[in-house]
Design a protein that fits this description.
about 775 residues; single chain; 30-stranded mixed beta sheet; globular
Length: about 775
């Protein structure tokens, strides 16, 4: 048996005044030709740890922003542990960022994630976070339905500095558009989250890691923009960071004021008639999001911090919904109905986080503690009037209805989480636990309005109370042996739920314990060839509103309903990946979902009413291939090609009178192009296209869709001012069109995705300030289900 020794080299990186330098790049090089062996990054206290199996004939090279590089040969090649401290001197007359050519690749394959080093990609200058996310390997952004997904998976969860954003849909898209790409260091695409993260969700994670600077002072940026689609939309925001010695204070805010014009078409076949619904509505949006926080270094080992985030959503939909009824088979117009509605939503979502980190020693051992309190207050109402006509909306029949629905939802979530990192010479361990307590209350009312006022319908109105407790423990271990790296983890979660429907006077109690293993193996043949394989088990818990049995009416002829008996589904995921020269990758995936749940569409042929309710109705399998290539056809042209093939198999348990299973093949291809139009790289252009073939979401078959975006950017005043002009969905090809293969319903929706946007952004202050700490608040999964 051959035993391979491991060597640990640790130390501190400081400046001449003994200020610690975080985010410094530590390079382990071969002494004879200076080729790169490994790369390491110092933590926020300027500490580093090198773990390697060979230190003979090696050199340590240190680079940091604004400082001269330092080279140090490793002279002691026998000690298993040693300490080497470095003092860096300011780089005279140069305050720009130090760029180490060839040391940090644009794309890197780690054992449990793919890293897109944004700061290495000059084409991202002047862009925003959403534009950069579009360029990340395997990521698909569809603004037609405001979703961000990973190839072969559903909508993805997005984190900032290891902290999940409590936003989704259009709010998430708007938030990412407000983050300057210049503030981003890297984006981590995590297709199989390790044991440290909550086991809930099968969509993977995108972690946006912001840059971390080092000097005292003030830094920030302000931004403003105007977007024109069918209506105009104004966008404004800014962020500021102030650091003085041990204290760091930060704040940011984003505000949007505008509207979109959406069109939805739905044709529903009945035995003797077809109902064609034309829903046109103006969606007025005024979301406001802001964050304030602070970090304080109690001493060299301890950091305490807090963060408060508030998101206020103000939205109003003004709609006109026309229904045309045709007799079959002649398709003669029989009658029409017109529904005029006003739908308003106002939500306030607050999150308070308290965080403490204790660094046990300089080798990277640390303990972190997070306590979170979230309180959500939501109010919504829909007031709609329906008039029936004999003909094409001209002669009333005298049948008229005026209805109103109201809803109030309050959610309180409290979580406590502890994480312990223990890197040893022979293995790196991660241990932690989490407690979460959820209390969700909703009151929904349905009624009608006549000359005598409003009358509530007690048979439809309902109150629903839901409580959930989850206790979790996890442990993971990572070890590197020569060219092999191994990581294995196990997470256990015990869940107790209780749901009570006041109208039905019904209580549903459920509890379950599950183990969630994860395993990762990486083989690095050399710098150019890397193989990865991983396995993970995940759980999908129902959203809080999906459990509410209240019937929500959009019109008198359509309603949706939750299901208090919903059970979680479980996923088993396998992935195999090959990466060549960090610029080319090919991956194969397989996932099996047991007890899949989603909305099931039904037709009441007697009363001509359509409905949808949430149900565990299927087992699902998907497998396929994904590929990515990053190329430079010319010095001024950077291109990234992505392509994927997916096969879906679904075995249904609910549509017993029709086909219960299907097998469907779909594919996608995307091309992102970035052009540098001058030598100074201050005038940039981009052209991005993608095509998605016909695919299925459960039993809804969606026709092919695509997208073409283009943009121009100018960087002025030492690149502190950026002016961007972007055109989205130029060909109006992001229309959602399809047919339900069981009910025969046909949809044709367009959500005003073609637009022209002008954005100005100006950054000010000391761009070398150390920003807020990276941290995982520990309330990710609970917020995602709201």
């Amino acid at each position: 048996m051959i035993v391979h020794a491991q060597y640990n080299i640790q130390g501190d990186i400081t400046d001449s005044q003994n200020n610690r330098i975080g985010n410094a790049v530590i390079l382990l090089l071969n002494a004879h030709d200076s080729t790169l062996v490994q790369t390491f990054i110092t933590d926020e206290q300027g500490r580093y740890l090198i773990v390697t199996d060979d230190i003979k004939n090696k050199i340590i090279k240190v680079n940091a922003l604004g400082f001269s590089e330092v080279l140090q040969p490793i002279e002691d090649i026998t000690s298993g542990k040693q300490t080497l401290n470095f003092t860096l001197k300011p780089e005279a007359g140069k305050l720009s960022e130090v760029v180490v050519t060839g040391t940090k690749k644009t794309f890197e394959r780690k054992i449990d994630r793919i890293v897109f080093n944004v700061s290495k990609d000059i084409t991202t200058n002047g862009e925003n976070a959403l534009e950069v996310v579009k360029k990340s390997p395997g990521v698909i952004v569809r603004q037609s339905d405001n979703t961000i997904s990973l190839a072969g998976k559903g909508s993805v969860s997005v984190m900032i500095n290891d902290r999940l954003l409590q936003l989704s849909g259009e709010d998430l898209i708007a938030y990412l558009q407000a983050i300057p790409a210049d503030n981003i260091d890297r984006i981590e695409v995590i297709t199989a989250p390790p044991a440290k993260y909550d086991a809930s969700g099968n969509s993977g994670l995108i972690n946006i890691v912001l840059k971390r600077q080092n000097k005292n002072g003030i830094q920030g940026n302000i931004r403003a923009g105007y977007e024109q689609a069918s209506y105009g939309k104004g966008i404004a925001g800014g962020d500021i960071n102030y650091r003085i010695d041990r204290l760091n204070v930060y704040a940011n805010a984003n505000y949007t004021n505008g509207a979109n014009h959406n069109n939805e078409r739905l044709a529903t076949p009945y035995p003797e008639q077809i109902f064609k619904v034309h829903d046109d509505y103006k969606k007025i949006m005024k979301p406001l999001q802001y964050t304030v926080g602070a970090d304080y270094n109690l001493n060299k080992k301890s950091v305490i911090g807090f963060q408060w985030n508030n998101t206020i959503v103000n939205r109003k939909d003004i709609s006109n919904s026309g229904i045309e009824v045709y007799h079959l088979p002649a398709m003669m117009l029989d009658s029409t109905m017109l529904t005029k509605g006003g739908n308003s939503t106002r939500n306030s979502n607050n999150l308070l986080n308290l965080n403490y980190t204790f660094n046990i020693d300089t080798s990277g051992k640390k303990i972190s503690f997070d306590a979170n309190s979230l309180w959500f207050d939501g109010n919504r109402s829909n007031d709609f009037e329906t008039t029936n006509y004999y003909d094409a909306f001209k002669t009333p029949t005298g049948i008229y209805s005026h209805n109103k629905t109201t809803g109030k939802q309050t959610i309180q979530i409290k979580t406590i989480q502890t994480d312990i990192e223990l890197p040893y010479q022979w293995v790196s361990l991660s241990i932690g636990g989490k407690l979460s307590f959820i209390n969700n209350q909703s009151n929904n009312a349905f009624g009608y309005i006549d000359d005598n006022g409003y009358h509530e319908d007690p048979d439809i109105s309902n109150g629903f109370d839901y409580k959930e407790k989850v206790q979790a423990l996890y442990m993971s271990a990572q070890r590197t042996i020569n060219k092999w790296s191994f990581q294995a983890g196990l997470r256990g979660e015990f869940t107790q739920t209780k749901g009570y429907s006041r109208n039905l006077n019904q209580t549903n109690i459920n509890q379950y314990f599950n183990l969630f293993p994860t395993a990762f193996v990486q083989y690095q043949l050399n710098d150019d060839n890397i193989w990865n394989i991983n396995y993970s088990k995940r759980i999908n818990r129902p959203g809080y509103r999906s459990l509410d049995p209240y019937r929500s009416y959009a019109t008198p002829y359509h309603y949706s309903e939750g299901n208090p008996f919903l059970q979680p589904s479980f996923n088993h995921n396998f992935e195999l990946n090959y990466t060549f020269k960090s610029n080319y990758s090919l991956s194969a995936f397989y996932q099996y979902e047991k007890n899949h749940f989603s909305d099931v569409w039904m037709i009441d042929e007697t009363n001509n009413i359509t409905s949808s309710f949430t149900e565990n109705f299927a087992d699902a399998i998907s497998y396929g291939l994904n590929g990515m290539a990053s190329i430079n056809p010319f010095s001024f042209w950077d291109a990234q090609i992505q392509a994927g093939l997916q096969i879906q198999e679904l075995q249904s348990k609910i549509y017993t009178a029709t086909e219960q299973s299907y097998k469907n093949t779909s594919y996608y291809i995307g091309l992102n192009n970035a052009f540098k139009l001058n030598k100074a790289k201050t005038l940039l252009a981009e052209l991005n296209v993608y095509y998605l073939s016909k695919y299925r979401e459960d039993f809804l078959e969606i026709k092919p869709l695509g997208n073409v975006d283009a943009g121009l950017k100018a960087l002025l005043f030492d690149k502190n001012l950026s002016i961007s002009l972007n055109a989205s969905d130029i060909l109006v090809s992001q229309k959602a069109r399809g047919v339900h293969i069981v009910t025969g319903q046909v949809i044709d929706n367009y959500f005003d995705t073609r637009n022209l946007r002008l954005t100005l952004q100006y950054r000010f202050g000391n761009n070398r300030i150390k920003s807020k700490r990276e941290r995982n608040l520990g309330i990710e999964e609970e917020k995602q289900r709201m």
